[in-house]
Write a structure and sequence with these properties.
Strand content: under 5%
Structural class: mainly alpha
Distance between the termini: 33 Å
Protein name: 4Fe-4S binding protein
Helix content: 55-70%
Keywords: 4Fe-4S, Electron transport, Iron, Iron-sulfur, Membrane, Metal-binding, Transmembrane, Transmembrane helix, Transport
Order of helices and strands: HHHHHHHHHHHEHHE
Number of strands: 2
Strand order of the largest sheet: 1-2
């Protein structure tokens, strides 16, 4: 099982590194597409297709068909969160001799997961009212995009720099902190109609009694099978598959029980 976990982690980390190096701005580009739509609506103009919307449309279609693999594998901001969290886990284990993975309670996570929907609504309303233009320099992902492009943000971005630092601190305290609680694109992805063939399901029939390893390991604290209300929260990190001792977790439509057995 540990060998399988290590293999999944290494493959995922390799893909994340490639996207981080070659396409770090995908997240901000995708939201720029959403922003352009609402800016056109606010200006009472016809929505014109642009390169930002190309990226947004592709990511939305891919998410609907295959799940949130962009979040789990391609988003540079998410990859940064994974790196900071894993570094914190390593320090806690090696320096402070604390075992296991740290994070918030399940109740707190359930509540905080709703914050990103409120934040998305605030951003969209601010765009429609013209208030968004006054937020220049306050965007943490604009600062992140500058840094990944090799440019240092100026004094005009000091608020954005502070917010980015605070988010990075949060990333050290909870796995996928930004993605679960604050990401506006994550909120959009989570409400998209995910194809049944893209959802994670578990065959409970051979699960060890009181195991729950998949739920304990899931950064979104999902009940892997049948949790339809929260299925959009899954970031397709495949951690549940890697930790399952019986290899009971699969992607796709649940297998139908053999009616002849009744």
């Amino acid at each position: 099982m540990k060998k399988r976990q290590r293999k999944i982690r290494l493959i995922r980390a390799g893909i994340q590194l490639l996207f981080f190096i070659f396409a770090p701005a995908l997240f901000s580009t995708a939201f720029a597409g959403v922003k352009s739509i609402f800016q056109a609506i606010a200006a009472h103009q016809t929505i014109s297709w642009n390169s930002f919307l190309d990226v947004t449309a592709v990511l939305l279609v891919v998410t609907c068909l295959f799940g949130r693999h962009f979040c789990g594998y391609a988003c540079a901001f998410g990859s940064l969160g994974d790196a900071l969290y894993e570094l914190t886990v390593f320090i806690r284990q090696k320096v402070f001799h604390k075992k296991g993975r740290h994070g918030y309670s399940e109740k707190a996570i359930r509540i905080l997961q709703k914050v990103k929907y409120i934040w998305l609504l605030v951003l969209l309303v601010s765009i429609l009212t013209g208030w968004y233009s006054k937020l220049q320099g306050m965007s943490p992902w604009d600062v992140f995009s500058m840094l990944t492009a090799g440019r240092l943000p100026g004094a005009a971005y000091k608020v954005g720099i502070v917010l980015l630092l605070l988010i990075m601190i949060g990333m050290c305290t909870q796995e996928r902190f930004f993605c679960q609680f604050l990401c506006p694109m994550g909120a959009i992805f989570a409400i998209m109609p995910i194809a049944p063939s893209a959802l994670f399901n578990r065959d409970r029939s051979t699960c060890p009694a009181k195991c729950g390893a998949c739920k304990k390991r899931c950064p979104a604290h999902l009940d892997i099978d049948g949790d339809t209300l929260l299925s959009g929260e899954c970031i397709c990190c495949h951690a549940c598959q890697g930790i399952c001792p019986k290899k009971n977790i699969r992607i796709g439509i649940p297998k139908m029980k053999d009616e002849s057995s009744f």
